[in-house]
Amino acid sequence: MAPATHAPAQTAYDVDDPDVSGLVTEDDTPVDSILSEKQQRLLTEPLYSSWSGPPPEEGQGSRPFAALANVGLFVSPTEPPIVPDVMLSLDVTLPEDFSEKKNRSYFVWRFGKTPEVVIEIVSNREGGELDEKLRRYRRQHIPYYVVYDPLREFGDPTLRTFEMRGDLYVPVERPWFESVGLGLVEWEGSFEGTSGAWLRWCTRDGRVVPTGAERAATAETRAATAETRAATAETRAATAETRAERLAARLREMGIDPDDA
User: Fold this and answer.
1) Which helix (H) or strand (E) holds 133?
2) Sign of CA dihedral 195, 31, 181, 145
3) Residues 139-153: pLDDT tens digits?
4) What angle do CA 136, 117, 148 make, to 5 degrees?
């Protein structure tokens, strides 16, 4: 895929903002389902617990990012927001004070850029993921738009990826985002006690980005394996020492000094 462009990291929030006091940024609408809620978390938590961030640029260190679920995306104060199930934006720094309304949603004029990736999780045919939302994300020039349809509400395939080329979205087969340094893969396994198919971030070689729990379990397994190997080596050493002692005793019974060089 052609790499998408990105804006430099924003670290200050001292710009003159439009008045957002009249905007509805939170309406307490619940998520679609438990499945959607779990899937959203599986697409955000691993990035914070296990991802080192987007590829560093020449002469620069690590780059910040924001992975958000079910947060309003405002392109302008006059246009109604769209609320992606998940969005990933590079080179942005979230504000620390969320008591201010202007800091609780993704206002493009504050961050200076749109997200690189937006993901919609289909739970029914009423969400407009393949028509209205697709058109709105296209108008906003979101570089990558992903529709995940685990229940096959729209039939096959379950995973559809679109890349912005010019002013159009072009379907792509492999959801790999070069500028982000990540891709997406459908993964069969168990997450929080629920087994099934899940959408997960992955590295170029297809390995999923682990959750914090998976990292801890892997570290625990490695520690246990190392401990087992150490115990096995100790047992083998003790066994070899015992055999050496028995052999020396037999040699002495035969009148041979085992210590005689």
Assistant:
1) helix 132-139
2) positive
3) 999 999 999 999 999
4) 80
| pLDDT tens figures, 8-37 | 445 444 556 665 555 555 565 666 688 899
- Tell me the pairing of strands 65-69 and 86-90: antiparallel
Q: Which residue has the tokens 């620390």?
A: 96
Per DSSP bridges, beta strands 86-90 and 117-121 are antiparallel
Sheet arrangement for strand 159-165: 65-69, 86-90, 117-121, 144-148, 159-165, 168-172
Give, in order, the Cα–Cα distances in Å from 16 to each of 20, 57, 109, 122, 193. 12, 29, 10, 37, 47
* Cα–Cα distance, 137 to 87 (Å, whole number): 12
- Asked if 74 and 103 touch (Cβ cutoff 8 Å), the reply is no
Q: What is the pLDDT of residues 146-183, one digit of tens each?
A: 999 999 999 999 999 999 999 999 999 999 999 999 99
Q: In sequence order, what are the residues at sequence separation of 6 or more whose Cβ sits closer than 8 angstroms to the Cβ of residue 152? A: 158
